[in-house]
Amino acid sequence: MTPPSEENPSVAERPRTQAPEAAPGKGDKRSIFDFMNSVFRGLTERRREVWNQRLEEAFAGIREQLDPEAAETILGSDQFLTVVSEATLIACRNHDEEKLRALKYAVVNAALPGGPDELLQLMFLRLIDYLTPVHLATLAVLNDPVKWMQRHDVPVPRWQNGSTSAVIEHCVPALRGRTNEREMVVRDLQNAGLVEQGQFLHIPMSPEGVFQSRATDSGRLFARYTSEG
Fold first, then answer.
1. What is the pLDDT of residues 204-225, one digit of tens each?
2. pTM to 2 decimals?
3. CATH architecture of the domain with residue range 134-225
């Protein structure tokens, strides 16, 4: 799994959003419309270039896992084209590493056997668009906390007792010291049907309870669909 670059750090790994560059002032000779057109055109072109590279990696991964005839049949199908088109629209609206990575794996997994059906694929793509990178990171943690920590070289705490909220705070730097935001993120995931219902976030539990999965069946499927596996 490719880590976020220093030039484009992961939102889930930075506590605060960086301030945007200042817009032109009153003395700027260019109109605000020229400025916005120039900015958006440049951003769109750069994002398209980044996404095209991700698509090439996705197509290469599909061809590696399928025989040539099956790969070409799937890559040329209307269903797959719909997934790629939807993922491309979402990618051009986003710059965060978590979302681009999730979209890339969604494209790959849409072509492989055993994936979700067409309806779920489109629903999951729209969830990627709707959810923030912090939501995606939190869901990945709640799906399997211990496996996530091992994969990301995060030490597994040896707590005598703890809570799901403490697990999230331990694993997602952007939510450290932000109790209200943690509650909002989990509530959003519950409303999307990806995390089980209930007021479990702050309840003290044994280590076995703390590290159990909180994802629903849909959440586990979504996590597999948007990850390397």
1. 998 888 999 999 999 999 999 9
2. 0.78
3. Orthogonal Bundle (1.10)
